[in-house]
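Batch manifest line 213
LIGAND: adenosine monophosphate
JOB: complex structure
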Amino acid sequence: MQIILFGAPGVGKGTQAKILAKKYNIQHISTGDILRDSIRNETEFGIMAKNLMNKGELVPDELIGRLVKEFLKSTDYKQGFILDGFPRTIEQCTLLDDIFDELKIENPHFIILESDTDIIVNRLTARRQCTNCNTIISLKHVKDASTCPSCCMEGTFIKREDDDEDVVRKRLDIYRKTTFPVIDYYREKYNFIFLNAAEPVETVTQNIIDRLI
Ligand code: AMP
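JOB STATUS: finished
ARTIFACT:
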């Protein structure tokens, strides 16, 4: 199974992608998480991406292309994958098209999670991410964020710099300008599943599973 998950920042792509990757036993590929790991490990990619990410801007296509290719080389993605945060520009579609060709993928599932801007801004400003295992929580639901419920590490939750309100609004603007054309590009070729992401996490997951059958 191959799933390409679209949606504005903060609609819950990362959360849903992790659940679905586990359920279908497929590889979760999040370019945002790979970049954040690169920043933490101070790799060449991380150093180049850090400032742009903190400002809410996209990192260059060329860098994303190299990063995705390198990641795919080290990963068993041929059984299936769920892409979260990629492709985000028309240029990046070329790379995905190559992957479809190479693996002879004819029926990938494109899912778009939709939500209102106010809900997204509210969600992102309350979001915290574990720096050890990338688990995401919301301060609206978890009052004590001192220990990560997934990896049990203490003091690992941080607020991402790009989750500040002004940066969030800029990211939403970039999403509309650069990722909407990507959706149009693939809508001409493949079926799309549109879903309301404002529902509780479990409901959104169930709706996705129901539509994938
Ligand atoms: P995300 O975690 O998907 O919200 O991504 C966080 C940030 O990482 C984005 O705001 C971009 O700066 C960068 N990023 C992630 N994926 C991509 C991509 N496919 N193309 C360009 N920049 C990306």
